[in-house]
Amino acid sequence: MGEWYFEYEIQVNRPGLLGDIASLLGMLRVNIVSINGVDEERRGMLLKAENEDSIERFRSIVSTMENIHVTKFRQPKVRDRLAVRHGHYIERDADERNTFRFVRDELGILVDFMAELFKKEGHKLIGIRGMPRVGKTESVVAASVCANKKWIFLSSTMIKQTIRNSLIGDEFSANNLFILDGAVTRRSSDERHQQLVREIMRIPSTKVIEHPDIFVQHSEYKIEDFDYIIELRHHPEEVITYELIEKNEMMSQNDHFGGFGGF
C-alpha cells in the first residue's frame, strides 16, 4: 500500500467541491489519511491506496475538473507531510533550494521539520542561521527529543560557553546528534577541540551547526557542503547579520574567563 501527496488550487470555490473529490476517492478505494488547507486557496491531502491503478485513475479524472488546478501529485516529501499537519507550507528559498525559512511563530513546524530530518540515518550536515535568542538551540534540542536522538554539544553558549575537546564511551555513536556553534568553534584556539570537530565531521551521522557562515571561515568546509540550511528570524523582515553575533560571542568568552581581568 503506497502513499501520495495530492494538492490542488481552488479555481471556483463552490459548495460541495471537497465532497465531490472525497466521493471520487471513495469510489476508487483510495483512502484519505489526512487533509488540510495549506494556503488560502490550496488544499493538500495525504492519500493511501492498495494499488497504483486507482491512484492513476484518480489523477486522470481530477486533472480534467474545471473548478480546481492540480499543483502537486507525488510521493510525499517531508515538506508535504508537514504542510498537511500544520496547514502551512514551509518557505524555501527560490534560488538556494536547500535553504528553508522560518519565523519564531513557526517554532512548532520547525521542530517537526528538523525531527523528520534527524530520523533519517546517515550523514547529514545541517546549518542554522539566526540572531541571538531567536530559539535556534532550543529548537534543535526539542527536535532531537522528538526524533528520539541523544544530542551531544561540541560547542555551545546555551547555558554557559561549552568547548569539548574529547568524547567518551558511546558519545561517538553515529546514532547521536552532534551540535556545535560555528562562532565558538571558529574562535577556539584549542587544537584538541578542532581535531574532535574534524573527527565528528567524518562520522556518518547528523551534525547541526549554528552560524554555518562563520564556521566555514578559515576552515576546510564550504557552505555548499551543507545538505540543508535553516534560517530562523523573529519576523520575516529581520536581517541576519554577524556583527552582533560575534560581539555576543566575545562577551560570552569574557564571562567564561572572568572578564579581561582574568587574564
TrEMBL record:
Domain of life: Bacteria
Pfam families in alphabetical order: DUF3388
Domain DUF3388 positions: 70-258
Xref: InterPro entries: ACT-like_dom_sf, DUF3388, UCP021288_ACT
Transmembrane regions listed in the UniProt entry: none
Protein's name according to its UniProt entry: DUF3388 domain-containing protein
